[in-house]
Write a structure and sequence with these properties.
The chain is mostly helical and 522 residues long. Helices cover 57% and strands 6% of the residues.
């Protein structure tokens, strides 16, 4: 699988030293069959027509393809995004009219942790300068500069996940604590800077997230990023006081249970999930959106196929890198052979052969360069596959939001069923006593109040579930359209570069074939 964040293929480089290639020069005596200062020698009886070799100094001149510009087809459709400094990343809606949101991340700065740290070497952190240019009306200006640390990015990601459930929200970079310890510090900081910039630019091209209050606050720096609320959601769902004694707010039912503080709700929803799968009892409500279930299954298969294509693309990049390396090494070997043949030559024909060998060396080095250029373009185009693997993670998260919301509805419906059953039993027991049982009557009233609150919570949960369904539907439509456009542009760019560089390499070897065509004549 092509790596993700730190994202994309590694650009292929030849292991052959480029400095070594750049310093290749042969003696001037290769320019002519006669070496300066050498004695005239008799003609070699096996001599043949002497090809007209080019000067060896051209061995490292830019090859003939240098004037050709191979442009990716996908660049044509994102000129406006490039102008605005945006990546044409997966799921980037191109039709933003005249509004732009340009984001850059730069200037990593090591700062002292204000509260200290118990972790060895953890008393410092890096902040990054985030520069924003925009003309969007949601912002309170057109240019902003703010320093943010990685913790702020985590808070932004959490807030977006909380507020925009059901959307395909781009994933933030991982914290990568281990990498920060084993990598060179400068290398790690630069990789994180690039990853943060890519992440923020992906948020900036999402048609909904780019207009969010959370992203505006983050970019403007007008307020600190607040972490997610820490009240006990489970208690609020049940209509009782939270663990800190605060008043209940059943609107919290629209949020998923949070591990570490919502143990009761997590337990109840886990119990409901087990009952759905193994209880042998039909759930109070089931997912009946057949179209969605089919699309979900199709996307799961698409993700598997995408992973396989990604692996093959990585193999292609490695193969092109290897052949470019080998071609370069062969060119260097022919250069050394040419020098040896020239220095040891006795006949003019031997020097002529050395000149022909020089032409092969020249072609091999040019071909090696072409393979490097081709590989760079291959990485550029096929990296779209890697981007969509990241998109599929966001899709799965959005589907998880839907499943979580649906499980909450099922759990609340089961609670209502249980509460109503208890009320019926208490009413039946109370009716057997003349005048009624006062304690049972009080309990019934309490349960009815609980039913009222739970019913309200259920209604809110249903509305939240329907909202997430609608978000899923809209995002799937957007995914279909943009996936079609992105993959079409990727394939066009990949094919045109493969064809273009193949033609250039053919021209290089065709020139050598013409220069040595005399040897086939008898």
């Amino acid at each position: 699988m092509m790596g993700y964040e730190n994202q994309g293929y590694e650009v292929a480089h030849l292991y052959t030293s480029q400095d070594q290639m750049a310093s290749i020069l042969l003696d001037d005596d290769l320019q002519s069959p006669q070496s300066n200062g050498s004695k005239s020698t008799p003609d070699d009886p096996l001599s043949s027509p002497n090809p007209n070799p080019n000067s060896i100094n051209t061995i490292l001149e830019p090859p003939s393809y240098a004037e050709a510009v191979f442009r990716s087809f996908d660049l044509d459709s994102v000129d406006s995004a490039d102008i605005n400094g945006q990546d044409h990343s997966a799921l980037a809606t191109p039709s933003f009219q005249s509004y732009y949101l340009k984001i850059s991340v730069s200037d990593p700065l090591k700062e002292v942790e204000p509260s200290g740290s118990i972790v060895p070497g953890g008393g410092h952190y890096f902040s990054y300068l985030i520069t924003t240019f925009t003309n969007m009306p949601e912002f309170n200006g057109t240019e902003f500069n703010v320093r943010r640390r990685f913790k702020d990015v985590v808070a932004l990601s959490d807030r977006l996940a909380e507020s925009y459930r059901g959307f395909f929200i781009p994933l933030r970079p991982d914290k990568s604590v281990v990498e920060s310890q084993v990598m060179q510090k400068n290398e790690f900081v630069e990789q994180r800077r690039a990853a943060l910039e890519k992440y923020l630019r992906r948020l900036a091209v999402h048609p909904v997230i780019r207009r969010s209050e959370e992203l505006r606050v983050f970019l403007e720096g007008s307020d600190k990023m607040q972490l997610m609320r820490t009240t006990d959601v489970a208690s609020k769902v049940l209509g009782v006081k939270s663990v800190d004694g605060g008043a209940a707010d059943i609107s919290e039912v629209t949020q998923p249970a949070k591990g570490g503080r919502d143990y009761f709700r997590i337990f109840k929803e886990l119990k409901q999930s087990v009952a759905n799968d193994w209880g042998g009892v039909k759930p109070p409500v089931v997912e009946d959106d057949k179209e969605f279930l089919e699309r979900k299954e199709q996307l799961q298969e698409f993700e598997q196929q995408l992973s396989n294509v990604s692996q093959q693309a990585e193999s292609l990049v490695k193969a092109q890198q290897d052949i470019g390396e080998t071609m370069g090494q062969m060119g260097l070997a022919f250069v050394k052979l040419t020098k040896f043949e020239t220095e040891e030559a006795i006949y003019d024909s031997q020097r002529a052969r050395a000149a022909d060998t020089k032409n092969v060396a020249t072609a091999a080095v040019k071909a090696s360069r072409l393979y490097r250029e081709l590989n760079s373009q291959t990485v550029k185009h096929l990296d779209k596959l890697h981007e969509y693997l990241g998109v599929m993670l966001a899709v799965n998260n959005a589907f998880s939001d839907r499943s979580s919301a649906f499980l909450t509805v099922q759990t609340l419906l089961s609670d209502l069923s249980s509460l109503n059953s208890r009320i019926e039993k208490l009413e039946a027991a109370s009716s057997k006593i003349f005048g009624g049982d006062s304690s049972r009557i009080r309990k019934i009233e309490e349960l009815r109040e609980t039913v009222r609150v739970t019913e309200d919570a259920k209604n809110r949960a249903v509305r939240e579930y329907e909202r997430i369904k609608e978000n899923n539907k809209n995002e799937l439509e957007r995914l279909d359209k943009e996936k079609h456009d992105d993959f079409l542009n990727m394939l066009k760019g990949f094919v045109v570069n493969q064809a273009g560089y193949a033609e250039k390499m053919a021209n290089v070897w065709e020139t050598v074939a013409e220069e040595t065509s005399g040897y086939v004549k008898k």
